[in-house]
Amino acid sequence: KKKKKKKKSRGKKKKMPSSTFSGTVSSPKLSVAVDMGNPFLNLTVDGFLKIGAVGVTKSLVEDTYKAIDKGSVSKSTFESALKKMCKEGVYWGSVAGIYVGTEYGIERVRGTRDWKNAMLAGAATGALVSAATNKGNDKIVLDAIMGGALATASQFLNNHYFI
User: Which residue stretches belong to region Disordered (predicted)?
Assistant: First the structure.
């Protein structure tokens, strides 16, 4: 019989530390049904609530980042962050409500649902929001153009890429 030679090791082999991460990321789905008895009001309130929540979340994330960067949270910064979250939520929700309501109204008047409704509603919303903030006539026109362009682009993307 042949004897197998054992290899002499120069010490114990160390394993590299390793870790694994697994998980599933899925978007949470939140459905809020508000029945105001009128489709116009239902859509407007729905847009306000959903996009208002986005505005609150945006503000929350920004203020959380600032608090982590600063390393501390005081009562006054917490109160300021809470006020900012409310302000952002109402602002974003109001803009969304105006846009959704205007688009629905234009759809009802025109009798069709297409990108032109989005363009007109975006332009009207941009102009109205700009006028409400007293930024001057030139800014109102520029914001109307921007609102129309963004709404039209969003409509094209939704209809052609996210079916």
Answer: 1-26
Domain with 90 in it: 74-108
Global pTM? 0.72
Backbone region of residue 50 per phi and psi (left: phi > 0; alpha: psi in -120 to 50; beta: other values): alpha
Whether residue 160 lies inside any domain: the answer is no
Tell me if 136 is assigned to some domain: no
Structure tokens at 116: 């032109």
Q: Which residue bears the tokens 């042949």?
A: 2
98-123: pLDDT as tens digits: 999 999 999 999 999 999 999 999 99
User: What single letter denotes the amino acid at residue 1?
Assistant: K
**Whose CA is closest to 49, among 26, 61, 28, 31?**
31
Question: Using CA of residue 100, residue 103, residue 109, residue 110, what is the dihedral sign?
Answer: negative
